[in-house]
């Protein structure tokens, strides 16, 4: 009997690295979660909680809160980390601000986070819809505080002025990663332009916030440089969380950052001049966002 060599198929995909125990989350359940689910479906709303596969959706929705995504659910950008669909948007609903504001009122949200896809094809980047959504939410729910997580306006500073003038308490723009990884992670964005957007927001007198994903291959000294750059451009609040690969088509996880490392980065950020740092494996931009409205401007 002849022993034949075993030939492995060349197309076999490498096994995905196993997630460490600290990244395990519970499935969303409970009456509060179900109530939010019904309202989101009834009002035909998009949430980044779903589109972004957020690991905290169960915790946040279970508390009766959600992060709403306006201007549709198709993005004009093709960032290599993001699960939101890329393409040519067809949705531009001028009634959306009313529907979002009404849903926030019905849900009795104390603190709402509003974000959007990039709409580069629109002359004003969707700024008028942004502004009206915040204004109507304040009118219908005057006791609700608001954070707006705004996209890169591609240096359309007139659009930025409209986006940030609705009366929201926190204005966030995520740089997402360190400067050296921008072409890989955010090919249609620029590190210096995002910093300028934060700088202009701060100069207008607002509470500023940004977020960085870790585990994409960044080095510690590059993260420290990004912290210094953010402080120099007027950032108040920084969130640090673990990058998780949404699908095999997206960037691989280069490293799983330990909880102890996240704790160290929080201390380092505060030492370098940030006023508030939210840092942990499951932290996302809107995680514990209600705490950020109390950070001094």
Automatic annotation (TrEMBL):
Binds 2 [4Fe-4S] clusters per subunit. One cluster is coordinated with 3 cysteines and an exchangeable S-adenosyl-L-methionine. It catalyses: [[Fe-S] cluster scaffold protein carrying a second [4Fe-4S](2+) cluster] + N(6)-octanoyl-L-lysyl-[protein] + 2 oxidized [2Fe-2S]-[ferredoxin] + 2 S-adenosyl-L-methionine + 4 H(+) = [[Fe-S] cluster scaffold protein] + N(6)-[(R)-dihydrolipoyl]-L-lysyl-[protein] + 4 Fe(3+) + 2 hydrogen sulfide + 2 5'-deoxyadenosine + 2 L-methionine + 2 reduced [2Fe-2S]-[ferredoxin]. It comes from the Bacteria. Pathway: Protein modification; protein lipoylation via endogenous pathway; protein N(6)-(lipoyl)lysine from octanoyl-[acyl-carrier-protein]: step 2/2. Residues 61-275 form the Radical SAM core domain. Its cofactor is [4Fe-4S] cluster. [4Fe-4S] cluster 2 binds at residues 75, 79, 82. It holds the Pfam family LIAS_N. It is an enzyme of class 2 (transferase). Keywords: 4Fe-4S, Cytoplasm, Iron, Iron-sulfur, Metal-binding, S-adenosyl-L-methionine, Transferase. SMART domains: Elp3. It comes from Hymenobacter antarcticus. [4Fe-4S] cluster 1 binds at residues 49, 54, 60, 286. PROSITE patterns: RADICAL_SAM. This is Lipoyl synthase. Its EC number is 2.8.1.8. Belongs to the radical SAM superfamily. Lipoyl synthase family.
